[in-house]
Write a structure and sequence with these properties.
Layout (H helix, E strand, L loop, with lengths): L6 H15 L21 E4 L9 H5 L5 E10 L8 E12 L8 H5 L5 E4 L13 E2 L1 H7 L17 H6 L17 H13 L6 H21 L19 H7 L21 H4 L1
Antiparallel strand pairs: 1-4, 2-3, 3-5
Helix pairs in contact: 6-7
Length: about 270
């Protein structure tokens, strides 16, 4: 396909004319600061009152750029109590020349002492000046934006959903037990005497059904042995492990009384 001479030049001039006629959008920085997202990672701010010197942020930092010093202080005991010891923060510094802005220290802080601030104007001419102490970190805490509101239709927090959860349902009632022949007969008599229990036909049917089921169950149940009957079945021997335990004799033997012969024991010693 033959190319038209000057086609590329015409396309370039068209792009230039298009941008010349378009209104330019210039940000007047530093007089006008840009609108940054709410979750932008500018700098880490410190709320010193919330810090308990638990050292979680310093231990979890992958770059080891957090330095913390503290000392213990004993509080006076209230009446009838004992004195308490607490950690007092002396130094909290972050070296932003080593920080990689991963946000792990903010996530692991259990007392909400570290926050992201959208401030980004803390550049220095010397890299050693990027080590900021707790005073400078505390100044950035005033620039932390409030948390954004929940989205429309989002799930409620777990604390609210757990508080509004309905109570578990109660246990279901136990099914009625099948009555035997005697109980069925007595129930039939009580039902016949009480006119509020139903008609005589329904009572007769229930009594017959209970009698039949009770008779079948009594038939299937083995007969109970009399209390004074002699022991007909042989005594079941204990397991091997129990026989071995009972056959163990402590070192030495007790004196025999009246020259009685030793009793024969179960197990390996009894067979010797």
């Amino acid at each position: 396909m033959a190319r038209i001479p000057g086609e590329g030049l015409a396309k370039g001039l068209a792009v230039t004319m298009r941008h010349m006629l378009r209104k330019s959008e210039t940000q007047q920085y530093p007089e006008v600061h840009p609108d940054l997202p709410a979750r932008s990672r500018g700098v880490i701010a410190l709320v010193e009152e919330n810090c308990t010197v638990c050292m979680l942020c310093a231990r979890e930092c992958p770059d080891w750029c957090i330095y913390i010093d503290s000392h213990k202080e004993t509080l006076p005991a209230p009446e009838g109590g004992r004195p308490r010891a607490r950690n007092v923060l002396d130094r909290f510094a972050i070296d932003f020349s080593l920080c990689m802005y991963c946000g792990i220290c903010i996530e692991v802080c259990p007392f909400d002492a570290l926050f992201w601030s959208p401030e980004f104007e803390y550049a220095e001419y010397d890299i050693r000046d990027l080590l900021h102490e707790k005073d400078r970190l505390g100044e950035w805490a005033a620039t932390v934006p409030p948390p954004p509101a929940h989205e429309v239709g989002a799930e409620p927090p777990k604390e609210l959903s757990a508080g509004s959860r309905p109570a578990p349902a109660g246990r279901t009632a136990r099914p009625a037990q099948v009555k035997g022949p005697a109980e069925g007969a007595s129930a039939a008599q009580d039902t016949a005497q009480d006119p509020a229990q139903g008609t005589a036909q329904d009572t007769a049917q229930d009594t017959a059904q209970g009698t039949t089921q009770g008779t079948a169950r009594e038939t299937a149940r083995p007969a109970a042995e009399p209390a004074d009957a002699p022991e007909s079945r042989p005594r079941r021997e204990p397991p091997r492990a129990m026989r071995d335990i009972r056959s163990i004799r402590p070192p030495g033997s007790l004196p025999r009384k009246n020259g009685s012969s030793p009793e024969k024991k179960d197990g390996p010693e009894g067979e010797r």
